[in-house]
TrEMBL record:
Coiled coil: none annotated. Residues 133-261 form the Acyl-CoA thioesterase-like C-terminal domain. Gene3D superfamilies: Acyl-CoA thioesterase, double hotdog domain (2.40.160.210). Residues 23-106 form the Acyl-CoA thioesterase-like N-terminal HotDog domain. SUPFAM superfamilies: Thioesterase/thiol ester dehydrase-isomerase. This is Tesb-like acyl-coa thioesterase 3. Pfam families: 4HBT_3 (PF13622), 4HBT_3C (PF20789).
Length: 266
């Protein structure tokens, strides 16, 4: 079993109750990555749904979550219908709800892909050999298990270069270091695995904790490496948005995402 699968494994304790350990392998500065927590909760909701495709998953991060801690997940069915099932789930530690998520599931076999239409092309991406591999950083365990290659135009902030990007953008390539195949739950993690775009334009001057995170999963890839691009356009009142896209190398759209985060200067 791949590490990611072990780390989203939950034991069912009742009809709508699960228990599991929030793993330490997907953390940013010792805090569990929001995409990982979203996948953790989506895995529980997916177990209760007869439709398995998480077409939209949204998470709100209510309180700090701890790693290596026994956690309880409660799942509630909101509605079950012919084409869509909707659930919500809460993650609890020490009796306190830390994260709440909502998911809408559909049956992939009912999707009419002949109607697919793109009005935007996949992002242009530099060759992987010209990109900068996100380095090992203590307590940033996510990058010990994901290969994240940043385009050089976005990497000045982490390489210590004086000139930062004029745009709040992070883009590049991503895959699991252990070559785990990418499925719908993995896309929930990957859409939150790049550094915040505002760091490219501002440098390492702030902590950017996510308030709300939402991913619409559209397809699964035919290639191991995934193209990713994330942009922020508006930083106001210490709030910033982040819009993301994931594509495979063949130009297939995999997921679109949006985050709302705080911009907290150190």
């Amino acid at each position: 079993m791949y590490l990611f699968d072990k780390d989203i494994l939950l034991e069912q304790k009742g009809e709508f109750n699960f228990e599991g350990i929030v793993a330490p392998h997907w953390s940013i500065n010792a805090n569990p990555n929001g995409g990982y927590l979203t996948a953790f909760l989506a895995a529980a909701m997916q177990k209760k749904s007869d439709k398995k495709w998480p077409v939209i998953v949204t998470a709100n991060f209510l309180a700090k979550c701890e790693t290596e801690k026994q956690s309880k997940v409660t799942v509630e069915a909101i509605s079950t219908g012919y084409s869509l099932n909707r659930y919500q789930a809460g993650l609890f530690q020490d009796g306190t709800e830390r994260t709440r998520a909502w998911a809408t599931f559909m049956d992939e076999s009912s999707c009419d892909k002949s109607a697919n239409r793109y009005e935007k092309d996949a992002p242009e991406m530099p060759p992987r050999e010209e990109c900068f591999l996100f380095p090992h950083v203590p307590k940033y365990t996510l990058y010990d298990h994901m290969d994240v290659l940043l385009a050089s135009s976005c990497a000045g902030w982490i390489k210590g270069e004086k000139d930062l990007s004029p745009q709040s953008e992070q883009k590049g390539w991503i895959k699991f270091r252990d070559n785990r195949p990418v499925d719908t739950l993995a896309l929930l993690l990957m859409a939150d695995s790049f550094p915040p775009p505002v760091l490219a334009s501002h440098g390492i001057v702030a902590w950017v904790p996510t308030i709300e995170y939402s991913v619409s999963v559209r397809d699964i890839p035919d290639t191991a490496w995934i193209k990713a691009v994330f942009r922020s356009h508006y930083l106001t009142c210490d709030i910033v948005e982040e819009d993301g896209e994931l594509w495979d190398e063949n130009g297939k759209l995999l997921a679109i995402s949006r985050q709302i985060a705080q911009f907290r200067r150190y």
